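in:
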């Protein structure tokens, strides 16, 4: 395993092919996800940042919303993500609306007061310094521009029929992969402390019964293996139980999403 102190970041800089494929499934945009970014009020003609763009599915949705007169800047620390994102954007004939930026840290390679919107989905739980990142986002927003964050709070994860005890033990072993695993509940106060105004919070929760987000458990298992904090046999039993629940139709996963929107 890479250094435990920086694993939360290192495992995004270098991603194994099977994890890349899993993220393709998890992050693919679906109509029912529209509610996640509705509060950002992304509109035609805007300049928007997708901070931590992954394989590009959100960037594509944002590019559709800003139209031919707008632009999306897609930023990520992983080069393979950016290459996949560029391929997906080109397949949608939207390459003229999206620019890609490979970064080494949370600094945004854009001038001050450039953007109408900053949108980031399930990324801030991994950044090195939450407050500094929020301030950096405020730097690139125009006065009156809007930051919209979608993120998890891993203390609220439920996976059945695996049960709270098994998931709690698995997450404890996997926790080296998260810098701020309870970031959802912290975002309101952090945004206020970082100089934003008009901070609004929503929480959306839906039950995944079809397995769209089952790779969450598989990824946690890989992190737990890397940490060496949980017996291999116990991890295998959890994954086997997950597989059976999917096959038998008893699987259910709920991970509430915090939607926090604020004005620069």
């Amino acid at each position: 395993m890479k250094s435990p102190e920086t694993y939360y970041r290192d495992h995004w800089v270098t991603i194994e092919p099977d994890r890349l494929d899993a993220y393709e499934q998890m992050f693919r945009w679906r109509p029912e996800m529209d509610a996640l970014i509705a509060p950002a009020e992304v509109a035609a003609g805007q300049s928007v940042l997708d901070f931590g763009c992954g394989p590009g599915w959100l960037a594509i949705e944002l590019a559709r919303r800003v139209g031919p007169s707008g632009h999306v800047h897609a930023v990520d620390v992983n080069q393979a993500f950016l290459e996949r994102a560029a391929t997906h954007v080109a397949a949608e004939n939207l390459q003229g609306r999206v620019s890609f930026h490979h970064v080494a840290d949370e600094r945004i390679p854009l001038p001050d007061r450039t953007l109408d919107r900053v949108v980031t989905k399930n990324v801030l739980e991994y950044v090195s310094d939450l407050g500094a990142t929020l301030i950096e986002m405020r730097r690139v927003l125009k006065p009156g521009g809007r930051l919209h964050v979608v993120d998890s709070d891993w203390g609220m994860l439920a996976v059945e029929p695996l049960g709270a005890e098994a998931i709690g033990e698995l997450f404890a072993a996997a926790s080296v992969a998260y810098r701020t695993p309870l970031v959802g509940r912290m975002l309101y106060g952090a945004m206020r402390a970082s100089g934003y105004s008009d901070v609004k919070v929503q929480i959306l929760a839906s039950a995944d019964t079809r397995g769209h987000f089952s790779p969450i458990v598989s990824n946690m298992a890989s992190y737990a293996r890397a940490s060496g904090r949980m017996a291999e046999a116990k991890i295998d039993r959890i994954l086997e139980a997950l597989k059976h629940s999917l096959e038998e139709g008893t699987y259910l996963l709920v991970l509430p999403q915090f939607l926090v929107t604020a004005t620069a």
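note: The chain is about 40% helix and 20% strand.
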